[in-house]
From TrEMBL:
Subunit-level organization: Forms a complex composed of PxpA, PxpB and PxpC.
Transmembrane segments: none
Family of this protein: Belongs to the LamB/PxpA family.
Protein name: 5-oxoprolinase subunit A
Job of this protein: Catalyzes the cleavage of 5-oxoproline to form L-glutamate coupled to the hydrolysis of ATP to ADP and inorganic phosphate.
Protein keywords: ATP-binding, Hydrolase, Nucleotide-binding
A GO molecular-function descriptor: 5-oxoprolinase (ATP-hydrolyzing) activity
Length: 253
């Protein structure tokens, strides 16, 4: 199982994630590319830290929404959105290459991630951006997303590798989608509950929903959010629990 976390989510003098601590736990780093968080100095630093540790570098692309942390719904025309996403991937690729690595995959952030679950226009913009990156740099990037989403379906149809993702610290609906953050209980904060969900997903392929029922969840990567209090300690606890259960931890890319 791959463990991924959102990193580099600061801007200027403000920092949100404990990047150094999380890089010692995860196998894949979703690096903010400047549109919802992140700046050039932060992107460079995180890429350098990831490369030293052998952590795969992923482009976490977003709507242009620094004020809303990329979590506000936006209507951006497909061509314009694809150009903005390609721009973000290209910027991160420069820093990743300078660190001796390269961008290894793409994951949308926040509102774009949720929108691309069902909105084919927005999902197609992500796919178009990834294919543009492939033409520019000569390699196809895996797309990380929610199982059953329009994003993964369109990416697969375009011949791109896809990776199904699950969440240790997010509540699920009976349909297997994430409970919106605007609803109470959308984020799991109790460490025992997060560890239990990580084990249920990884070992049994299921997650409890907000109704108490179980929903099948098949995933190759498990997300551990880096912007929650005590995220690094919680990530270490989740990894230790998985390894104790005999789960091999390794990057998918």
């Amino acid at each position: 199982m791959d463990l991924n976390a959102d990193l580099g989510e600061g801007f200027g003098r403000w920092t949100l994630t404990d990047d150094e601590a999380l890089l010692s736990v995860v196998t894949s780093a979703n690096v903010a590319c400047g549109f919802h968080a992140g700046d050039p100095a932060t992107m460079r630093r995180v890429c350098e830290g990831a490369a030293v540790r052998g952590v795969r570098i992923g482009a976490q692309v977003s709507y242009r929404d620094l004020a809303g942390f990329g979590r506000r719904a936006m209507d951006v025309p497909r061509v314009e959105l694809a150009a903005e996403l390609t721009y973000q991937m290209g910027a991160l690729e420069v820093f990743a290459r300078a660190a001796g690595a390269g961008v290894a995959y793409v994951k949308p952030h926040g509102a774009l991630y949720n929108r691309a679950v069902a909105d084919e226009e927005q999902a197609a913009a992500v796919v178009n951006a990834v294919t543009a990156f492939a033409r520019a740099f000569g390699r196809e990037l895996p797309v990380l997303g929610l199982p059953g989403s329009a994003l993964l379906r369109l990416a697969a149809a375009a011949g791109l590798p896809t990776v199904a993702e699950a969440f240790a610290d997010r509540a699920y609906t009976p349909a297997g989608t994430l409970v919106p953050r605007t609803q109470a209980g959308a984020v799991l904060h109790e460490p025992d509950a997060v560890v239990a969900q990580a084990l249920a997903i990884t070992v049994r392929g299921e997650a409890a929903t907000v109704t108490g029922a179980k929903v099948p969840v098949a995933a190759d990567s498990l997300c551990l959010h880096g912007d929650t209090p005590g995220a690094a300690a919680l990530a270490r606890r989740v990894r230790a629990a998985l390894e104790s259960a005999g789960v091999a931890i390794g990057a998918f890319a």
